[in-house]
Amino acid sequence: AQRVTQPEKLLSVFKGAPVELKCNYSYSGSPELFWYVQYSRQRLQLLLRHISRESIKGFTADLNKGETSFHLKKPFAQEEDSAMYYCALSILTGGGNKLTFGTGTQLKVEL
Amino acid sequence: NAGVTQTPKFQVLKTGQSMTLQCAQDMNHNSMYWYRQDPGMGLRLIYYSASEGTTDKGEVPNGYNVSRLNKREFSLRLESAAPSQTSVYFCASGMIAFDQETQYFGPGTRLLVL
C-alpha cells in the first residue's frame, strides 16, 4: 500500500534562512506528488505538484525516484511562510483520484 | 464563485446522536471527497465520489455514510456519533489539469462528540 512520510512535526527556522521540508513516499507505481499548505484559520490549498515543475511563492520540489523523496525547498524563508505543510501522493483509480497525505509539518519562521 | 462550501462550521454532539455534514461545490467538478483531519495523523480519506451516482469507501469509512445528491452536493452522515469521531472534516472536489486531478478543499467542519 502507498505511504507518505513527513518525519518532522515541527520545523522552526529564522527569517532569511533556507527551508527544507522532507517528504518520502512508498508506492510501487509511478507516483504523482503534491504539496498542500494550510495557513492559520484557512482552508487547505494546493502549493505545487511535481509534474508541472513550477515554483510557487519561491518554493520548489523535485521528485527523486531513487530516494523516493519529494522534499519542499525555499532558499530564503519569509514570515508569511509559517503554516502547516502536507505532502500528498495521488493514485488515479478508475473512479477518481485518491490522495494519501503525510502527517504534516508545521513550519514556523521566526524573526 | 464560492468554490467548496461546508455546513455547519462547528457542531457539538452527544454520543449516539446523528447528524449530516453538508458539502457543495459550484465548479462543475465530477469528483468529490470527504476527509478527516486528526492531530498527528494528517488527512485521511473517508469516502469519495468519482461522479454523480457513485460512491466508494476510502481509508476510514466505518461509522459514516455518504450521499452524492447531485453533481454539486456530497453529504456525510454520522448515524450514531462516537467520541472517536471528534475531528475536523474537510470536503474537497477535484478537477483534471495537466493530466492530473487537483483537489480543492472546503473550509472544514469542526465536530466535537461528547
Describe the protein in words.
The complex is a heterodimer of chains A (111) and B (114). Chain A is mostly beta strands and 111 residues long. Chain A is 0% helix and 47% strand. Chain A contains no helices and eleven strands. Chain A has strands at 3-5, 10-14, 19-21, 24-26, 32-38, 45-49, 60-61, 72-74, 83-92, 97-101, 105-110. In chain A, strands 2, 5, 6, 9, 10 and 11 form a six-stranded mixed β-sheet that branches. A three-stranded antiparallel β-sheet of chain A has the order 3-8-7, with no helix packed on it. In chain A, a hairpin with a 6-residue loop joins strand 5 and strand 6 (45-49). Chain A is globular, with a radius of gyration of 14 Å. In chain B, 0% of the residues lie in helices and 56% in strands. Chain B contains no helices and eleven strands. Chain B starts with a strand and ends with a strand. At the A-B interface, strand 6, strand 9 and strand 10 of A face strand 4, strand 5, strand 9 and strand 10 of B.
Tell me the overall shape of chain B.
globular
Gyration radius from CA atoms of chain B, angstroms: 13 Å
How many DSSP-defined strands of chain B? 11
Order of helices and strands of chain A: EEEEEEEEEEE
> In angstroms, what separates the terminal alpha carbons of chain B?
36 Å
Ends distance of chain A = 41 Å
Radius of gyration of chain A (CA) equals 14 Å
Helix content of chain A: under 10%
User: Low-confidence parts of chain B lasting 5 or more residues at pLDDT below 50?
Assistant: none
Specify the structural class of chain B. mainly beta
Notable traits:
heterodimer, A: 111 residues, mainly beta, 3-stranded antiparallel β-sheet, 11 strands, 0% helix, B: 114 residues, 4-stranded antiparallel β-sheet
Map the helices and strands.
The complex is a heterodimer of chains A (111) and B (114).
Chain A: E1 3-5, E2 10-14, E3 19-21, E4 24-26, E5 32-38, E6 45-49, E7 60-61, E8 72-74, E9 83-92, E10 97-101, E11 105-110
Parallel strand pairs in A: 2-11
Antiparallel strand pairs in A: 1-4, 3-8, 5-6, 5-9, 7-8, 9-10, 9-11
Chain B: E1 4-7, E2 10-13, E3 19-25, E4 31-38, E5 42-49, E6 56-57, E7 65-68, E8 74-78, E9 87-97, E10 100-105, E11 109-113
Parallel strand pairs in B: 2-11
Antiparallel strand pairs in B: 1-3, 3-8, 4-5, 4-9, 5-6, 7-8, 9-10, 9-11
